[in-house]
Amino acid sequence: METMSYPCSPLLSFPTHEENSFFPWSPQVALHENATIQVDHSTDQQQDNEFLDTMDQDYVGGWHHQDASDVGVFLDCDERILGQESGNLAAIQEELMEENSLTDLLLTGAEAVEAGDSALASAVFSRLDGLLPGIPDNASASSFDRLADHFAQGLRSRISSASVRCSLPEPLPSDRMSAQQIIQELSPFAKFAHFTANQAILDATKGDTDVHVVDLNIGEGIQWPSFMSDLARHGGISFHLTVVTTDADYRGDIHHESARRLSEFAHSLNLPFQYSSFCIHSDEDLHAFSKSCKGPVIFSCDTTSMPYKSMSKLQALLPACVKILRPKLVVIVEEELVRIGKEASVCNASFVDFFFEALHHFTTVFESLGSCFGGGNQGVCMRLVEREMVGPRIQDFVGQYGSVTVEASTPGVLERYGACELSGCNVAQARMLVGLFNRGFGVVLEKGRLALCWKSRPLTSVSVWAPI
C-alpha cells in the first residue's frame, strides 16, 4: 500500500488501548514507546481557549427538569380544535397561551404534524417561539430550552420542507472535530463504545496473525488507533482495514483523512497495516470482494453518528453482506433509540410515540453529558457538542422518521447469527471505565449486548454476533 506522508491531525489524539482502558486520556498522552503525537494548538484554538475561559458558567443552574410524562394535559385538545370549524388561528393561539409546559407543547405539535393539522401546528410553533426566544444564539438559555428548540425545528422541517430556519448549515470540520474530542475526553460515550467493540474483536481473533476488519461506517476512524496499539503490543500481527461505502454516503475527503491518519499511526507503531475501500453498487461487488479476501473477516459498524436514512440503508445492506461474506464476527455500536432489532422496533411505532420516546432519550443524553462537563467551561462544552452533534441528530431523526422503510427484526438482518457472550475482561473493563465518571452512569449486560446507561436508562450499546 502506498504510504501517505502528511502531518498528524492536531485535533484527534490517538491513545493506546492498554494505557487508557482505565484512565481518561489527554491530548498529550504518549501513544507508544516509539511514537508520540502532540496536539499542535493553532492560533484559532488558542483564541477558542481564551473564549472558553471567559464564558458565563450558566449550565448547571439552567436545567428545567421538564417531565415528558404529563402528556395528559392535551388529551382534549383535538376536541376543542375540531369544534372550531372556522379554523380561527387566533382563538387556537389564545388557548395555547394558557399552557406553560414545553413538553406539552412539543407533544401537541407532534400530534398536529402527524395529523396534518397545519393550523394547530402553526399555533404551537408560534407559542414555542415566544417561550424560546433567540435560540440557538442565546448563550444563557437553559439546556432543556435548547433541547426543545431542536425538537421544534425537527417538527417544522417535517411539516414543511420549505422552512428556512430548520435547514442546518454544514458544520465546520474544525468545530465538529472539537466536539468529538470533547466527547472522547470528557464523557464515557466514545471510550465505552470503542473499547468494548475492540475488546470483542481482540477476543475473537486471539492467536490470529492476520486481522481483517470490514468497517461499515468508519467516519473519522477514531475507533481504530487503540485497537492498533493492542495489536502492535502483541507483535507479529498484521491489520487490514477495509471501508465499505455506497454512492449515497461516500465522502472522499473524510475517508482520505482517515486513511492518512491511520496509516501514519500504524507506521509509528511498526504495525503492518493495509487500508482499502470499496463502494457497493450491487451484490456482484460483494461477490468480487469475497473472492479477494484471503481469510475470515470481521464486521464492525458504529451507527451512533449515522443519519436516519443511512441507518435504514445499513439494515438493507447488512443481510447481503452477511450472507455473501460470512463474517467471523459482527460488532455493532448503536444508540438505544434506534438500534437494529429492537424488540419494540421504532419503525412500527406512530410518529407521536417515536417523538415521545426520542424526547425522553435525548433529555437523558443531555443530562448525562451535563454531568461530564464540569469546571468553568462546562457551558461552552455543552453548547458545542449540542450544536455540532446532538442537535443535528435530533432534528434529523424527528424530520426524517418514517421517510424510509426499515426492517424490524434482528433475524432478518443477521440471519443465522446469534448473540455472542462478551468476555469477563470486556465487562470488567467497561464497568471500571464507566466508574471513572459520574456515578449516574452504569452498564447493563444482556446476552451478547453491553449497554451504557444513565440512571438505569440505556443510551448506547455494543452488540456482538457470531454464526450459529
Automatic annotation (TrEMBL):
<feature type="region of interest" description="SAW">
    <location>
        <begin position="399"/>
        <end position="466"/>
    </location>
</feature>
<comment type="similarity">
    <text>Belongs to the GRAS family.</text>
</comment>
<dbReference type="Pfam" id="PF03514">
    <property type="entry name" value="GRAS"/>
</dbReference>
<protein>
    <recommendedName>
        <fullName>Nodulation signaling pathway 2-like protein</fullName>
    </recommendedName>
</protein>
<dbReference type="InterPro" id="IPR005202">
    <property type="entry name" value="TF_GRAS"/>
</dbReference>
<feature type="short sequence motif" description="VHIID">
    <location>
        <begin position="211"/>
        <end position="215"/>
    </location>
</feature>
<feature type="region of interest" description="VHIID">
    <location>
        <begin position="180"/>
        <end position="245"/>
    </location>
</feature>
<keyword id="KW-0804">Transcription</keyword>
<feature type="region of interest" description="Leucine repeat II (LRII)">
    <location>
        <begin position="257"/>
        <end position="289"/>
    </location>
</feature>
<keyword id="KW-0805">Transcription regulation</keyword>
